[in-house]
Design a protein that fits this description.
This protein has about 425 residues and is of the alpha/beta class. The protein has two domains: about 75-310, Aspartate Aminotransferase, domain 2 (3-Layer(aba) Sandwich), CATH 3.40.640.10; about 315-413, Alpha-Beta Complex (Aspartate Aminotransferase, domain 1), CATH 3.90.1150. It is built from 13 helices and 17 strands. The chain has helices spanning about 5-10, 60-65, 70-80, 95-110, 120-135, 155-160, 165-170, 185-190, 215-230, 300-310, 315-340, 360-370, 395-410, and strands spanning about 40-45, 45-50, 55, 110-115, 145, 180, 195-200, 205, 210-215, 230-235, 260-265, 275-280, 345, 350-355, 375, 380, 385. Strands 4-12-11-10-7-5-6 form a seven-stranded mixed beta sheet, with helices on both faces. Strands 1-2-3-15 form a four-stranded mixed beta sheet. It has a four-stranded antiparallel beta sheet with strand order 13-14-17-16, covered by helices on one side. Helix 3 (about 70-80) packs antiparallel against helix 10 (about 300-310), helix 4 (about 95-110) runs parallel beside helix 10 and helix 11 (about 315-340) packs parallel to helix 13 (about 395-410). The chain is globular, with a radius of gyration of 21 Å. The chain starts with a helix and ends with a helix. The model is unreliable at about 1-5 and about 10-15 (pLDDT under 50). The structure holds 4'-deoxy-4'-aminopyridoxal-5'-phosphate.
Length: about 425
Amino acid sequence: MSQPSTLAANNMPHAPYQAFADFPVQALMPFTQRPPVVFTEGLGSWLQDSQGRRYLDLVQGWAVNTLGHAPPEIARTLADQAGRLLHVGPGLHNAPAIELADRLTALSGLERCFLASSGAEANEGAIKLARKFGRKRRGGAHEIITFRNAFHGRTLATMSASGKPGFDTMFAPQVPGFPKATLNDIGSVSALIGPGTVAVMLEPIQGEAGVIEATSGFLRDLRRLCSELGLLLIVDEVQTGIGRTGTLFAHQRAGITPDVMTLGKGLGGGVPIAALLAKDEVSCFEPGDQGGTYTGNPLVCAAALAVLRVVTAPGFLPAMNERAAQFRDGLDALALREGGPPCSGQGLLLALELPQPGRAQQLADTLRERPGQGLLLNAVRPERLRLMPALNASPQDLALALTWLDEALRTPA
Ligand code: PMP
């Protein structure tokens, strides 16, 4: 974005349907329904479309833009790194990758790190690592217990690990070896454990399922069970990691340490990078087992380091938690008025359940199209609105989102 100030000043009338005249979208393979708007710039919590209309963005690229749109810390870092070293490939060391692995291992207490480009790729790596561990240390055990409604990515193995309804038949046959348990039901996990089991894998909060939390008690029970039986506990923190839920990693709330953790989304703050972290004794890849052209790409590693510098700076997460608590109070008050339960989630990964079927989607559409400026929210389920603002969203912007949501909720569907 060349002139950030124009974004703040511009508030042109709404004409989203004209946007497509200038953009031949038919060349893109259709894979999801998208509104007829083309976004061209962003700054902090605000996005702007090609018609100059502004939107307050509480989706932030699906919980990716940790520091909002076009954060100066990342922009500066990218420009500097691009002028220095863009790419050397997996066969040569580079300084940002070494520094990032060092930082992530120190922050997580997991001693080894593999850098990837997407959450699915990191999870695919975690699955391979667990299978290798099973082959070397557990007599060939390869089954990984995962959970109904879980989401771990869109590669064949990660779709098979996911419990999203429909994923089991969509590209059949699935990759075998992912029996499904029920979240927060330790008995359902125990019942699936057999000689072929090597690991249990879960999201501390199931994001795509609608922001459904694993309780701290369940996470601790799982940790105990896995430790007793020598199984690996794999936490997928692709959506919950890097401060999103109020702690640097969501599992820290339960006071546990996993054997393996994956990160993605918020780690790059808008730049595609992901990570697979494992305890030293689990880190059993041998040369040839794992790789990837872009692993440890210096450009994206430098961006992740910039994100980590901000999020781990003293005071950043406490201040975020204060704003998040206020925001949550406001959402809970709306939920109460609408006759729904209080929000689910933690920190700034929250969802509001609305009693009427389809109401969340209708609200998301209405708010995006509201007169004046739009508000972007995600109807993660037809009856659940997911809110994932930038971690540094201002109290004013969060309050404005509450005001607009309140207005929309008062308008009958
Ligand atoms: N795991 C979780 C928990 C996720 O939420 C997602 C993405 N929504 C993924 C994995 C996949 O990440 P990516 O889209 O970067 O492959």
